[in-house]
Specification:
Length: 214
């Protein structure tokens, strides 16, 4: 019985998903949620490049699919991309564009009680490989489904160097990519407060489904 309880605590959540609300992705809300169910996930985080407020429809639809959904954002900075998670995502609309200061974003999100993850740190042109010089990050995305293997490897090395926990996300731009990488949480993650606390406590493990099943 104890083993079953522990297994039930584990939650598979894809922390990096784009939809048709991003200008470079595809998938309407119901298609995205259905794909998450098909992938065997317990939940996902919608992290658009912009139009964050449009993601709220996912919160309305989530119970129909028995999924936990978080509305996050992928914010571009001069140092790379950051995944932002907080209750009031609309406040980050001011960080649209790609000329944002990374440390300023991190400080603002932490002040608001949120959490920031360095996205695909070593992807050429879009990484945040300078994360070692940033303070206040909650985690490093070391398993990104759109990365090349060496980019994920370097991200893992960065996490070891900084002592930060690792996360996984598909970085899906098409529905069939959802769940190819995800984060396994060892505590229940049902609310944004749960997610932020779990990230900052390091109660998360990245999973590369293609590698583990291949």
């Amino acid at each position: 019985m104890d083993i079953m309880r522990r297994e039930n605590l584990n939650m598979r959540i894809d922390l990096h998903v784009h939809t048709a609300n991003s200008d470079d992705a595809y998938g309407e809300p119901e298609e995205v949620l259905a794909a998450a169910v098909k992938a065997g996930l317990n939940g996902l985080a919608v992290t658009e490049h912009g139009n964050y407020q449009k993601s709220e429809i996912f919160l309305t639809l989530a119970p129909r699919f028995n999924l936990v959904v978080f509305v996050g954002a992928e914010v571009a900075t001069r140092s790379g991309h950051l995944l932002v998670f907080s209750n009031d995502i609309s406040r980050w609309n001011r960080f649209k564009g790609d000329n944002n200061d990374a440390q300023g974003v991190i400080d603002a999100v932490n002040l608001a009680g949120g959490a920031v993850v360095a996205a695909h740190p070593y992807r050429i042109g879009h990484g945040c490989g300078g994360a070692a010089k940033l303070s206040g990050l909650a985690a490093i995305e070391s398993c990104n489904g759109a990365n090349r293997p060496f980019e994920n490897h370097m991200a893992r090395m960065l996490a070891e160097k900084t002592g930060l926990p690792c996360t996984g996300g598909s970085d899906a731009h098409f529905t069939d990519e959802i769940g190819r990488c995800y984060t396994l949480f060892t505590v229940p993650v049902r609310t944004m407060a749960d997610l932020v606390a779990a990230l900052k406590a390091g109660r998360c493990t990245p999973v590369d489904r293609l590698r583990s099943e291949g």
